[in-house]
Structure to design on (215 residues):
């Protein structure tokens, strides 16, 4: 586990953890941040296969042909349905936006930029798609975002498909979007990626955007 403090952001690499455990940890950490008991915190993790539905998700986007062994969680973030699983890097920033910029749109676009900057470090050219949240390679989604903000303190965050088994996405309409597929770094680069290298690049870009420092 990485346990470092970069300026005022504490970094925790949780390794592989069950989704429900980390969801509870996020809620506890967000409340402590609201109460001023801790500094800003960032969690990185891989989950077991799960489908999560945001608070406004359409349940019809969870398809009948899905793998029935995969757990389903109705959660308190924005956005529709998505998948988390092995080989996917999930990042949960618990930040007090009062210390940065109290603007939700700015926060979401900054997270997208961090992801795009990380992908370019691996020679993957990614982009935004107008009117949609997330990061795309051509017409396929490689990273999904969904957040919850309470008293300007964030939780939930984003996921990047690194070596993700994309077959799981056949059981859902990812993010409720019918006319786009999904991809991964492995698929774009034609080989397995070292997720530890992706974490390091991601942290460098995260700190650059939020703290103007370097990991």
């Amino acid at each position: 586990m990485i346990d470092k403090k970069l300026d005022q952001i504490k970094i925790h690499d949780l390794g592989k953890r069950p989704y429900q455990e980390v969801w509870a940890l996020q809620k506890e950490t967000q409340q402590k941040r609201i109460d001023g008991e801790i500094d800003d915190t960032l969690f990185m993790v891989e989950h077991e296969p799960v489908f999560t539905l945001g608070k406004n998700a359409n349940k019809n986007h969870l398809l009948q042909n899905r793998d029935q062994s995969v757990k389903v969680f109705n959660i308190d973030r924005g956005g529709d349905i998505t998948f988390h699983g092995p080989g996917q890097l999930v990042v949960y920033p618990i930040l007090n936006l009062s210390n940065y910029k109290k603007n939700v749109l700015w926060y979401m676009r900054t997270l997208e930029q961090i992801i795009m900057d990380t992908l370019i470090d691996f020679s993957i050219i990614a982009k935004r798609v107008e009117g949609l949240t997330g990061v795309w390679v051509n017409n396929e989604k490689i990273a999904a975002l969904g957040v919850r903000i309470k008293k300007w303190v964030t939780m939930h965050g984003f996921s990047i498909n690194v070596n993700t088994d994309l077959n799981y996405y056949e059981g859902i309409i990812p993010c409720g979007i019918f006319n786009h597929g999904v991809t991964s770094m492995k698929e774009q680069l034609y080989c397995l990626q070292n997720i530890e290298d992706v974490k390091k690049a991601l942290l460098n870009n995260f700190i650059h955007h939020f703290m103007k420092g370097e990991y």
The domain at 47-89+97-210 is CATH 3.30.930.10 (BirA Bifunctional Protein; domain 2).
